[in-house]
Specification:
160 residues; Rossmann-like_a/b/a_fold; globular; cytoplasm; 5-stranded parallel β-sheet; nucleotidyltransferase
Amino acid sequence: MSRVAICPGSFDPITYGHLDIIRRGANVFDEVIVAVFNNSSKAPLFSVEERIQLLKEVTSDLDNVKVDASRGLLIDYAQEVGAGVILRGLRAVSDFEYEMQITSMNRKLDESIETFFVMTNNQYSFLSSSIVKEVAKYKGAVTDLVPEPVEKALKAKYNQ
């Protein structure tokens, strides 16, 4: 039986923390669909199309990773693509409460779809897209935080 996992996120922009979770998921599941979703509580820096392009570029070496986007509910998308697993990364205890609420709602909507949590690599435990954008905005170094194509895209966005 094929095991398809969805790794959802806004990925605005993708960080090494995201990439770590995607790569580790690709080692466990037959296929990982990295699905770009818009977070309605945030104003994105990159368009969905730009995020998809960056994700494709930085995951191009992973044969079992596909990049896509969706606007609706994650569970509806999971059902649509035949995924049985949602792959999520946890950075700290503070992430757990939020993730538990989302997971509980997803289980209520479809109890056949499981959520797998992967603890982030310690070197990325502080990392978030918001922090990366803030550092890049003020011309701080993000070389160790994001892949090179993302760093170039951030510099272009902030006219550096």
